[in-house]
Design goal:
It is a single chain. This protein is α/β, with parallel strands linked by helices. Helices cover about 30% and strands about 20% of the residues. The chain is built from twelve helices and 20 strands. The protein has helices at about 15-25, 75-90, 105-120, 130-140, 155-175, 180-195, 205-215, 245-250, 285-295, 310-320, 360-365, 390-405; strands at about 5-10, 30, 40-45, 50, 65-70, 75, 95-100, 105, 200, 220, 260-265, 270, 305-310, 310, 325-330, 340-350, 350-355, 370-375, 410-415, 420-425. The strands form five sheets. The chain has a ten-stranded mixed beta sheet with strand order 9-7-5-2-10-1-11-15-19-20, sandwiched between helices. Strands 14, 16, 17 and 18 form a four-stranded mixed beta sheet that branches. The chain has a two-stranded antiparallel ribbon with strand order 3-4. Strand 3 and strand 4 (about 50) form a beta hairpin. Helix 3 (about 105-120) packs across helix 4 and helix 3 (about 105-120) packs parallel to helix 5. The structure holds guanosine-5'-diphosphate, 6-O-phosphoryl inosine monophosphate and magnesium ion (MG). Magnesium ion binds next to loops.
């Protein structure tokens, strides 16, 4: 069976964790393909909430094999803490496999992330300060340490000595920061972390291909989202990997023809955390209402998310870049009780109507959204289980999105719980 990709279509936190968990019911492998513990994916099962950072959101089922693909950047201490947290809550993590080609996040990556943000001052990106960008930068510069290096003390030490020397020079001379201790890092990674990580390391490319060849269902779980993509997002206000569907091939080692389904996750409104342009951003009372009703605070960082109306210009672009086969729209329940709801259908700039994202970033910073306004609904949707339970105006909202994006909505989220969804066009 070809693979299914789950990809964020906005600026993250769309509910990828919930949908991945939902779809994982029928999956054998669930593979994370990029990002690191900058992600926070929430799953709520029978009132119990799990916030995952690195471990794929299929882990809660006993029939799945969770895999961390080569495209992910891994802080092994965070990974082990997450395993311990899950085990303590009765979740078996023993089937977890981590790619030996995945890169390691090292202590100096955190230092450099923080120092770079400080140096950028008012232009700071608002990163999660988890060393993600610096770890991917080292990967591209070919000086990164990989998960498989933990298996060979001599190679690990050799690489580490060169890199720590370089990083310490940079931290001291450019950023005026203290040096990091080589022996401390070496001891932590080789003596404390490696013995526990080693049994998890595997040939994930072969594992994925063997599952596909055996006709098993494979899901590839993206972190972050289309507009945080290093190439297709609102650069430089992006993350340092490729969350878009193409990244799923690179980050797991399969080809495009091995993918048959791409599920784009979209929130019924939009949120963004960190800096960067946001054409439909709301302020004032309505913004507060959405933040409070939607609990729009970072899953792991606790940062307030910036809210705005749904933007179909972005969604049309996401549909193209990811070749979306369907959309799962989450958090429709949060929009209840509004007199009217708005959907951005185009942008206006210099008297011109744009239906596509402008390619010039400076233009995006000054576009004005053009809205279609629809009547709201007052019903509480949280107990809806079928389309018939959705009021006409909520259904009209969904159909209006489908029309403007040209992609069917298959799932509609009506609450955080695993069972709180409605199958729409399916
Ligand atoms: P992810 O990063 O894309 O996995 O999303 P997050 O987990 O960071 O943020 C989504 C938040 O919305 C979480 O708190 C989820 O529990 C919650 N959530 C997901 N789907 C729904 C939904 O349909 N309705 C409501 N009210 N909450 C939802
Ligand atoms: P999930 O998977 C929302 C944002 C940060 C910042 C930018 C760069 O939960 O959707 P980074 O630390 O990656 O270098 O930060 O990207 N960001 C996210 N925003 N959800 C995420 O993940 C994010 N991961 C990174 O806020 O603006
Ligand atoms: Mg999140």
């Amino acid at each position: 069976m070809p693979a299914t990709v789950v990809v964020g279509t906005q600026w993250g936190d769309e509910g990828k964790g919930k949908l991945t968990d939902l779809l994982a019911k029928d999956m054998r492998l669930v593979v994370r393909y990029q990002g690191g513990h900058n992600a926070g994916h929430t799953i709520v099962v029978e009132g119990e909430s799990f916030a995952l950072q690195l471990i794929p959101s299929g882990v809660l089922y006993s029939h799945t094999v969770p895999v961390i693909g080569n495209g992910v950047v891994v802080d092994p201490a965070v990974l082990l803490a997450e395993c311990d947290m899950l085990e303590a809550r009765g979740v078996d993590t023993s089937r977890l496999v981590v790619s030996g080609n995945a890169h390691l996040i090292m202590p100096y990556h955190y230092e450099i992330d923080r120092a770079t943000e400080r140096a950028l001052g008012k232009n700071a990106l608002g990163t999660t300060k988890r060393g993600i960008g610096p770890a991917y930068a080292d990967k591209a510069a070919r000086i990164g340490l990989r998960v498989q290096d933990l298996l060979d003390e001599k190679i690990f030490r050799e690489k580490l000595e060169v890199v720590v020397r370089e990083k310490n020079t940079m931290l001291a001379k450019v950023y005026n920061r203290l040096s990091l201790d080589l022996e401390e890092i070496s001891d932590l990674y080789l003596n404390e972390l490696a013995p526990r990580i080693s049994p998890m390391i595997g040939d994930t490319v072969s594992i994925v291909h063997e599952a596909l060849d055996a006709g098993e269902n494979v899901m590839l779980e993206g972190a972050q989202a289309t507009f945080l993509d290093l190439d297709h997002g609102t650069y430089p206000f992006v993350t340092s990997s490729n969350p878009t569907a193409g990244g799923a091939c690179v980050g797991t080692g399969i080809g495009p023809r091995d993918i048959s389904r791409v599920v784009g996750i979209a929130k019924a409104y939009v949120t963004r955390v960190g800096s960067g342009p946001f054409p439909t951003e709301l302020e004032g009372e309505l913004a507060e209402l959405l933040v409070e009703r939607g609990h729009e605070y970072g899953t792991n960082t606790g940062r307030r998310r910036r809210p705005g109306w749904l933007d179909t210009v972005m969604l049309r672009q996401a549909a193209r870049i990811n070749s979306l086969s369907e959309i799962a729209l989450t958090k429709l329940d949060v929009l209840s009780d509004l007199e009217e709801v708005k959907i951005c259908v185009a942008y206006e700039v210099d008297g011109e109507r744009l239906t596509r994202l402008p390619y010039h970033q400076s233009v995006l910073h000054r576009v004005k959204p053009i809205y279609e306004t629809l009547p709201g609904w007052t019903d509480d949707l949280s107990a809806a289980t079928s389309v018939a339970d959705l009021p006409d105006s909520a259904q009209a909202y969904l159909r209006c999105i489908e029309e403007h994006v040209g992609v069917p909505i298959t799932y509609v989220g009506v609450g955080p719980g695993r069972e709180q969804f409605v199958q729409f066009h399916r």
